[in-house]
Amino acid sequence: MKKLTGIISSFLAAGFLFTACERIDLEGIGELNKLELWYSPYTSDAAPLPEDSVLIDHVEKDLGISLNAVPLPTNKDEQAEVLLDAAKSNSLPDIFMVNRDVLTTLVRENYVTRVDGLYALMPERTVKMYDDASKQAASFDGICYGLSQSGSIDRNEGILIRKDWLDRLGLPIPVTLDDYYDVMKAFTFNDPDGNGRNDTYGYGAYVDIRAIEEGLGCRFAPFFGAFGVEGTFNSTKSNAGLNIHKPEYKQALEYIHRLAEDGLIDPRWTVHSKNSFREAWKSGKIGMMREQNAAFALESNYKDFDERFPDAEWILIDPPVGPKGKSSVGAYATGYRIYAVSRRAQELGKLPIIAKFLEWMSTDGYITAAYGEEAVNYMIDDNGGITTEGLPDPKYAYTQKAAAPVLQLRNLVFYNGDDELISRYPTWYSINGKEMSPLKLLRDMQSKPWTVAVANLPGISKELKGFYEECVKDFVTGRRDLDTWEMWLKEFDKHGGADWERRCIQYAEANALLLDDAKVLPKDKAKN
User: Are residues 173 and 268 in the same domain?
Assistant: First the structure.
């Protein structure tokens, strides 16, 4: 049985289910009660929230709010471009998701309004979602300009490998960088799937850049971790600074360049989107990757791979150990998902409407936003828990891909409590009977060595960021010769890299964010 008891029982006891709500007459809804929300989709490769969804229907009939929910691009650069273009044309929506870098620009240009006053208008949501640390994450000079809630769960990614390929080729689980190379080479050239074709690759990735993992992004972070230069910034007291300035960074690039030059990485990594990368591993072409627990192990996400390769098996392994014994999955910092309110919405008097909507999403609307429609996507059992048992058509259970479109606003309500995670990450069984537990996988991923990073570092110009990212990628692909690395670093510093490092160190020191030298969390000390 798949259930969540604590949360749902409390809603039942409080009479929060929709059947107890009085319906509001939609006639006469004015401009003030029309709310436009630009959201980040919970499932990137699923359709947007349908306009006729039960969630939008309840928002209209229960709150008297006409909700227009528009998905933002999943690519971070495209998302930033959309928001900044909208700001310049004075067409930002009432409320929208935004990252810290873009929010900084919007605050500076006076496109968004302060949100401090909203917390008192949504007391239950504030208790669940907004603590002092989250408020600080979107504050500038002591003024809060964004509603910051817990974002992605810390340390929820890891190195996954095709164990069935290892077994077929008689290979042990790789440990060192040399082991990794040998396994990736065998996965590429020794026909690990036995189909007689040269159509597999040792490693799959895409350029998944985050503020704390610039350059090649987090999918390549374990290789940088083997040299002790994972993440954008080294946050140790003895060696603080941009990792790109460390000699070991070039060594990591040389290793990754060798993988690429020898054809061991799926060559589409330079152009892959998040969705096309995931289609690649689900198509059985990839033998190793860094992937997220839910994107891999949720039934709705694993199903396509399972149907194609029912006898396949992936396992989680430790990140590679480098020449000096260093190892890390990558850098992590507590992440926040920020929603900002446009200045125009404030001028139109919509702040109380926005607060009313968000408070409802965390109370009366929580079940619908998180699990869909009763008797279609979920059932409530005798103990007041969420279950998928007894549904007329199990295809539309909230755990299945067909339900993904109606659950696209889940990011607005999830708060990552243990009781919630049990329902979000239910255990299920693959076609060949293998137990699949996204929650257990999460805990295993969190037990691997990770590196603490400094969040909210000072930003850089769009020009320097592009120069940094494109050139690092060119050194891997061979478009730039690694023999010119030191010369390029001087150019990087001349364009603002040295000043950026100075500002990052000053910020970390001023906020007491630098750590002792032992910054990599040992597996036995990693926190859940």
Answer: yes
CATH classification at residue 133: 3.40.190.10
Q: What is the CA radius of gyration of the chain?
A: 24
Encode pLDDT of 211-261 as tens digits: 899 999 999 999 999 999 999 999 998 999 999 999 999 999 999 999 999
Indicate if 355 and 236 belong to the same structural domain.
no
Phi first, then psi, for residue 515 (nearest 5°) are -110, 170
CB count within 10 Å of CB 512 equals: 6
Residues 6 or more apart in contact with residue 484 via CB below 8 angstroms: none
Look up the pTM and report it.
0.74
How far apart are alpha carbons 366 and 357 in whole angstroms?
11
Q: Are residues 249 and 350 in the same domain?
A: no
Give the Å distances, CA to CA, from 169 to 185, 188, 290: 12, 12, 22
CA 411 to chain centre: 11
**Domain shared by 228 and 262, yes or no:** yes
Give the H/E segment covering residue 520: strand 520-521
| Domain co-membership, 34 together with 65 | yes
With contact defined as beta carbons under 8 Å apart, do 104 and 459 qualify? Answer: yes
Distance CA 394, CA 303 (A): 14
Per-residue pLDDT tens digits for 255-306: 999 999 999 999 999 999 999 999 999 999 999 999 999 999 999 999 999 9
Model pLDDT for residues 490-503, shown as the tens digit of each residue? 999 999 999 999 99
